[in-house]
UniProtKB/TrEMBL annotation:
Protein name: Tryptophan synthase alpha chain
Subunit structure: Tetramer of two alpha and two beta chains.
Lineage: Bacteria, Bacillati, Actinomycetota, Actinomycetes, Glycomycetales
Domain of life: Bacteria
Gene: trpA
Species assigned in the record: Glycomyces luteolus
GO molecular function ontology, one term from the record: tryptophan synthase activity
UniProt key word Amino-acid biosynthesis: yes
Keywords per UniProt: Amino-acid biosynthesis, Aromatic amino acid biosynthesis, Lyase, Tryptophan biosynthesis
Pfam family for this entry, one: Trp_syntA
Listed pathway(s): Amino-acid biosynthesis; L-tryptophan biosynthesis; L-tryptophan from chorismate: step 5/5
Any one Gene Ontology cellular component term annotated for this protein: cytosol
Signal peptide: none
HAMAP family: Trp_synth_alpha
Amino acid sequence: MHAADAFAKTKAEGRAALVGYLPAGYPTLADSIKAVDIMIDHGADMIELGLPYSDPVMDGPAIQKAADQALAGGFRTRQVFEVTEAVAGRVPILVMTYWNLVERYGVDRFARDFAAAGGAGLITPDLIPDEAGEWIEASDAYGLDRVFLVAPSSTEERIVSTVAACRGFVYAQSVMGVTGARAATSAVAPALVERTRRHTDLPIGVGLGVRSGDQAAEIGAYGDAVIVGSAIVNCYLDAPDIPTGHQRLAELTADLAEGVRR
């Protein structure tokens, strides 16, 4: 399954897609698989698996803590394929990763192994299309989506070149700075989506900061996908035990899913 499959469904239903993010291997390898199943069962249309990394420059404190815990638990890059394979087939599964992890594994090898596991594509926050020749070649060879980011600081020229290289959807990073749940959504996000829409027919996903169904409804009114990460991770970080975290995740996902369906 690819991102286009999810967007065909949500477009037919006249709503935005809900994309849930969780680092693979967090809170444990088995529980990250269970968490993905919970998100899908409670209304997530796509899943974004984070690839834990020791130097996550874009991630806020919640995702950094979760990634550190996954790495301390022995997580290795190849295990993202195990998680993908365990959950693939119900909704599209994308991996969000810093680029040097893919380079270290081998770009063609990563694309091959991820496609074989049933993955849909990659979201690459620190890779720009100008430097993505090897990835563009590998993603074409294995039929994978490639999602690049635009930001409020992006020039028109940068937006044009970024959307031209994307396949699946475009990721609109709605705030400048690191990830994290916020009390209010970004005021500049609607303008960024509008600027991006002038240059592409691809769906536009809006990420960074959503933590409630009300915020999901607000963003779903102008974005094609609502991407939620830190609030999902916080279900486990703030819980006394993993079963409680699973319960909180179920409740949050249901609330977010209701939000995008308003």
